[in-house]
Amino acid sequence: MSKQAHGHTPAAWTGVVISFVGFCISGAGMIMASTLVVVLGMVVAFVVAGAVGLAMKGAGLGKQPDPSVEQYKAEFRAARSAGTPEAVTVGA
Q: Which domain of life does this protein belong to (predicted)?
């Protein structure tokens, strides 16, 4: 599991920090009873954080593919397309 670096990338952390700021803005908007500020915070939390995270991932700052996992997927697809009964247990 640790080899996959699930969530331990600059893109993931930046998205989380921006989402946290957006939720804080929405929380302040709830206290102020301002629908506009709540909606603005949700836009920051979902749209802006998602866009920035995806842009950073596209720039190479996200999770990099693991070659051994990609090899296993290719072997599994080949066995499954061949229709062999061992398709379920390839690599097990």
A: Bacteria
Dist CA 21 CA 37 (whole Å): 13
Cβ count within 10 A of residue 68: 10
Calculate the dihedral angle through the C-alpha atoms of 31, 37, 41, 42, rounding to the nearest 10 degrees. 100
* Pair 58, 77: CB distance under 8 Å: no
Cα–Cα distance, 69 to 84 (Å, whole number): 21
- By residue count, the chain amounts to 92
pLDDT in tens, 6-65: 668 888 899 999 999 999 999 999 999 999 999 999 999 999 999 998 899 888 887 777
